[in-house]
C-alpha cells in the first residue's frame, strides 16, 4: 500500500472520528430541551436522538455536495489528504475544547473554518483558494461561501429566535383565550393539562429535531470524505486499489456514494448514543427554565429551519438554530427569565468558532509544509 493511499485512509478515519465527536458534541442540540422538561430520561432521549439521527442522515445528500464541491476552488489549490486531515483536526480540536467547557459551539462552522484555514495555508494565504460569490453566474446559482455559509450563519439564528418567539407567543395566546372561555375549555387550559398534553407532543418534536440534526450534520462529513476521494482519484492515488478497497472509487456521477452515506449515518448515531451531558446542562438548564410547551416550541422551530436548510444544501448550525429558538421561547415567556451571562458566553463561542478552527488547521498545515510533508 502506497503512502498516498495510506493518507487517504487516514482522511476517512479522521473524518469518521469527527463525525463521532459531532454526534456526542451535538447530542445536546437534539435532546437538551426534552431532558430539561423531564419528558424523557437522558437515556431515553439519547436513544431517540440516535435513531432519528440515523434516519435523517439517510434522507439526502444536498449538504454533502456543498461541502465536497462548493467551498474550495480546486483550480487554485490542490485538495490533498494532508489538507483535509488538518481541516478535520482543526474542527475536532475546537469541538473538544468547547465540549470540555460545556459551550454549545457549532460543529458545522468548526468544520468549515478548518477547511477554509487549511485551504488558505495551502494557497499561501491567497483568498482565491475559497469559492466566493464573486461572479454573476455564482450569484444567480447561489454558490460559494457567501450564499452557503455567511448567509445561513446570520439568517438561521435570526430565524430560530423569531420562529421560537412567534410559535411560543401563539401557543400562549391560544391558552390564554381558552382560559377566558370558561367551562371545560378553561379547565383543560390549566397548567397540569397543558404540561400533560405538550409532554406527549414534545416526544414528537424531539424526534423531529433528531431527524433534522441528522439531515444536516451527518452530511457534512459525507462531503469531506467525498472531497478526499475525488482529489485522490484525480491524483491517480486510487488507480490500483486492492480488491478489498475497490468500493472507494468515487464513481462517475456527482452524487455521494452509498457506502459513505451509510457509514457516516451509523457513526453519527453511535456518537449521539454516547451523549454530551456538559452541553445538555448549558442548553437545557442554564439559559432559561423550560416546561414541555417551551421545549415543544423550541424543538419544532429549530427542526423546521434545519430541514429547510438541508433541502437547499445549506450547512446550517444545529447549535445556532436550537439555541436561538430557546432564546426566542424564553423572551416570549419572560425576557427577564433568560440568563444573559450564559448567552453571552455562547455567542462568543459562536463568533470564535470559524477563526479558531481555521487558525488551528492553518497552523497544522503550515507546520507540515515547513517539514516538507504536504
From TrEMBL:
Which superkingdom does the taxonomy of this entry point to?
A: Bacteria
Q: Please list every transmembrane segment annotated in the UniProt record, as residue ranges.
A: 46-64, 76-97, 145-173, 193-212, 259-280, 346-365
Any Pfam family from its record, for instance, is: PHO4
Q: What is its main location?
A: membrane
Signal peptide position in this chain?
none
GO terms under biological process: phosphate ion transmembrane transport
Where it sits in the cell: the answer is: Membrane
For membrane topology, the record states:
Multi-pass membrane protein
Provide this UniProt record's keywords sorted from A to Z.
Answer: Membrane, Phosphate transport, Transmembrane, Transmembrane helix, Transport
GO molecular function annotations of the record: phosphate transmembrane transporter activity
GO terms under cellular component: membrane
Return the InterPro entries for the record: Phos_transporter
Q: State the similarity comment.
A: Belongs to the inorganic phosphate transporter (PiT) (TC 2.A.20) family.
Query: Do you know which PANTHER family this protein is assigned to?
Result: PHOSPHATE TRANSPORTER (PTHR11101:SF80)
Q: What is this protein called?
A: Phosphate transporter
What does the record give as the organism's lineage? Bacteria, Pseudomonadati, Pseudomonadota, Gammaproteobacteria, Lysobacterales
Amino acid at each position: 500500500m502506497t503512502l498516498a493511499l495510506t493518507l487517504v485512509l487516514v482522511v476517512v478515519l479522521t473524518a469518521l472520528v469527527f463525525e463521532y465527536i459531532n454526534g456526542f458534541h451535538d447530542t445536546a442540540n437534539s435532546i437538551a430541551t426534552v431532558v430539561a422538561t423531564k419528558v424523557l430520561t437522558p437515556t431515553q432521549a439519547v436513544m431517540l436522538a440516535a435513531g432519528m439521527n440515523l434516519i435523517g442522515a439517510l434522507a439526502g445528500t444536498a449538504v454533502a455536495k456543498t461541502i465536497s464541491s462548493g467551498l474550495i476552488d480546486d483550480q487554485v489549490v490542490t485538495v490533498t489528504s494532508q489538507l483535509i486531515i488538518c481541516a478535520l483536526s482543526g474542527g475536532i480540536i475546537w469541538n473538544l475544547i468547547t465540549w470540555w467547557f460545556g459551550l454549545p459551539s457549532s460543529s458545522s462552522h468548526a468544520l468549515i473554518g478548518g477547511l477554509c484555514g487549511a485551504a488558505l495555508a495551502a494557497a499561501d494565504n491567497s483568498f482565491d483558494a475559497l469559492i466566493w460569490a464573486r461572479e454573476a453566474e455564482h450569484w444567480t446559482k447561489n454558490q460559494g461561501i457567501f450564499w452557503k455559509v455567511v448567509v445561513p450563519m446570520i439568517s438561521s439564528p435570526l430565524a430560530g429566535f423569531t420562529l421560537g418567539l412567534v410559535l411560543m407567543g401563539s401557543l400562549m395566546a391560544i391558552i390564554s383565550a381558552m382560559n377566558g372561555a370558561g367551562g371545560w375549555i378553561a379547565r383543560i387550559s390549566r397548567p397540569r393539562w397543558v404540561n400533560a398534553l405538550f409532554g406527549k407532543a414534545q416526544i414528537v418534536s424531539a424526534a423531529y429535531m433528531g431527524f433534522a440534526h441528522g439531515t444536516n450534520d451527518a452530511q457534512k462529513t459525507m462531503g469531506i470524505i467525498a472531497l478526499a476521494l475525488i482529489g485522490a482519484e484525480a491524483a491517480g492515488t486510487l488507480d490500483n486499489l486492492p480488491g478489498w478497497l475497490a468500493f472507494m472509487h468515487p464513481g462517475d456521477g456527482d452524487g455521494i456514494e452509498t457506502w459513505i452515506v451509510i457509514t457516516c449515518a451509523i457513526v453519527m448515531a453511535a456518537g449521539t448514543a454516547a451523549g454530551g451531558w456538559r452541553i445538555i446542562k448549558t442548553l437545557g438548564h442554564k439559559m432559561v427554565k423550560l416546561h414541555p410547551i417551551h421545549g415543544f416550541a423550541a424543538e419544532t422551530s429549530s427542526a423546521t429551519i434545519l430541514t429547510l436548510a438541508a433541502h437547499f444544501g445549506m450547512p446550517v448550525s444545529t447549535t445556532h438554530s436550537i439555541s436561538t429558538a430557546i432564546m426566542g421561547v424564553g423572551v416570549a415567556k419572560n425576557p427577564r427569565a433568560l440568563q444573559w451571562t450564559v448567552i453571552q458566553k455562547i455567542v462568543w463561542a459562536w463568533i470564535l468558532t470559524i477563526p479558531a478552527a481555521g487558525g488551528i488547521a492553518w497552523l497544522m498545515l503550515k507546520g507540515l509544509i515547513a517539514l516538507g510533508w504536504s
